[in-house]
Amino acid sequence: MPATTLSSLLTPGAQNRPIDKIGAEERASKFTKRSIKKEAKVQGIKLAISMTDLTTLEGKDSPGKVQQLCRKGITPDPQDPSVPSVAAICVYPRLVPVAVKALDGSGVHVASVATAFPSGQLDLEERLKEVRQAAEDGADEIDMVISRGAFLAGEYQLVFDEIAAIKEACGDAHLKVILETGELETYDNVCRASHIAMHAGADFIKTSTGKVSPAATMPVTLVMLEAIRDFHRETGKIIGMKPAGGIRTSKQALHYLVMVKETLGDRWLTPDLFRFGASSLLNDLLMQLRKQTTGVYQSPEDFSKD
Amino acid sequence: MSETPTWDYAPAPESSAIVNLKEEYGHFIGGESVPSADGATMETINPANEQVLTRFAKGGQEDVDRAVASARKAYDEVWSKISAADRGKYLYRIARLLQERSREFAILESMDGGKPIRESRDIDIPLAAHHFFYHAGWADKLPYAFPNQTVNPLGVAGQIIPWNFPLLMAAWKLAPALACGNTVVLKPAETTPLTALLLAELIQDAGLPPGVVNVVTGAGETGAALSSHAGVDKIAFTGSTEVGKLIQRTAKTRNLTLELGGKAANIVFEDAPLDQAVEGIINGIYFNQGHVCCAGSRLLVQESVADLLVEKLDHRIKSLRVGDPLDKNTDVGAINSREQLDRICELVESGKAEGSELHQSTEDLPEKGWFFAPSYFTGVAPSHRIAREEIFGPVLSIMTFRTPDEAVEKANNTMYGLSAGIWTDKGSRIFKLLGEMNAGVVWANTFNKFDPSSPFGGYKESGYGREGGKQGLAAYLEVK
Known about the structure:
Helices cover 49% and strands 10% of the residues of chain A. Chain A is an alpha/beta fold. The longest helix of chain A has 18 residues, at 218-235. Chain B folds into two domains: 24-260 and 460-479, Aldehyde Dehydrogenase, Chain A, domain 1 (3-Layer(aba) Sandwich), CATH 3.40.605; 265-444, Aldehyde Dehydrogenase, Chain A, domain 2, CATH 3.40.309.10. Chain B is built from 16 helices and 20 strands. Chain B starts with 23 loop residues before the first strand and ends with a strand. By secondary structure, chain B is α/β, with parallel strands linked by helices. Classes of the chains: A alpha/beta, B alpha/beta.
């Protein structure tokens, strides 16, 4: 276990900077002032669709529901072939086999939340078992949760070790590490947790489970994007970002893309490095896209609710 | 990783259709638009495309005499007689009308002065309205601002406005003057007279008695005629230190407030929130193309984080969008005038010649119009001209320090003393440094934040007197 990496995180340096709350929030709000019109809007909406992790994480999820969602993800708008597929379908581990079958050959990834999502309150062994099973069943991406209790108790080494162990259990699957920023509360915590996750092997860092309020916000995402930028400068490694929960409108999605572009650069504007974790966002993107291409306002009823 | 095409923002220009420019503008004297006595006019130019926007009257001694007489008459016959509550009502009305017509004012401000519409829309105009609202509230409460004292207005105030915040500076000066019971002769800058003239129309719509506010337009001589006029009881000037000194010598009144130049230090300690500090540095020096007297034009950064900070700053300035001021996505607009652009270029050349290294965000500037790329210098010595003289453009001079004492010494090592910034996570250090900085405004972990309730003004060659807040009221009152 590269524990030396962790201790270097805790000494004052670029990785362990304080975040000024007012300044971070002010900067985040500036991205919402950008005016995205015409071709830029069409291109941005299509990009956002291709970055969506279309998600269903409910107790009542069934194979039928997942199949329906997979079809929607492959062909979001059957009337318009120029609309890309989404990036992934995100489901609970038990439904991974259903999604794998439904998405076979489509290029759409299967993402699975694992590690006793959303609380993470199980023994590490149990969580590792769940991760291995999901990966074995064909999940391309694993969305894990960190042990927030341990983090808030200052047990950073434990958090680091758990992430590293889960990364190993993922095998070839990509690992997204959910910080559950709504429970970490301060931006200083978010920044520190981001660095711990990236050093421990995360491919993506992700804001939230969607089960805790607040979920993703612009400032929290900004703090994480800046951590990704610092990590890249220090290590040369490129980490992805996934805000999840609370992003419902095209306008919000475009604001996030502006923030990614102006914080990390165009290089990060790809589904390989940026995702939206969302369920209701997709239909709004489709609705605004058709409005943009036809010039006519659309009704929510014109799009299937899956 | 797959190659991704870049995602560019499409042009998003604000339409200027709402602005109806007249072919020619007169002075605003005694509630009417009047031409100059000698009929002289001059042009105002849109700095973003170098096209003439319109013509306006070029005032001479006779016009200034008329305006001062008109203000005196309005003071004697009307303004000093009406109740303080009524003065407040007029100010509230001006504030509300300004809010209602904010879009028109914002667009005109950007056309005449070159500042990005994002700033005129979100900062200049709302803040101008805010100043009228704030001072409207004071009008009938002046005894509470100066308990156990008696306050009287001064009489006729002559106010000379700079070109960097044409409407906002007019509001800064008009609102307290009127709230305190004075009448005014206002002289806007020669490159940016239009929003002051539109404000004159608005003041007429608000039903303010004729002569309470008069506007005389023109160039330097017009301002000199006003500032040396025997009939004014108060001079408020915002502009260069050079002109400020001249006014100090020639003014007939002892009631002077001068808000002059600056060369503010923005001090970043190693424990600072660096990403937010970068935003503060950007906002400190590139806000309004650096045409800001309190701009954070000297960056003092602790050696241990200097490389990291400069790297972050370099990354950030590349995302600044320079261009059409009316485009809603423009961050840095046009330099106000050819003359100012020449001055910036001359100082930048001196920086290079003296051995500092110049870094710029882009070389891709619009072909027409006066633009200068956001720039910063590294390897600057405190003796260099770019570390001592006010550039008044988007050019930052970066120096380093090792200890807090050295930071304070370098920060105070200037003939100016208008503003300063401190960036540190340590609250106790902020309070200690506050007492040690010779600057009228000190921002901690932020920069260029303005509020009508906060007094603004300088030390040393940055001038004297305060504007805004309770302290600002005193500048327009005789306190007994």
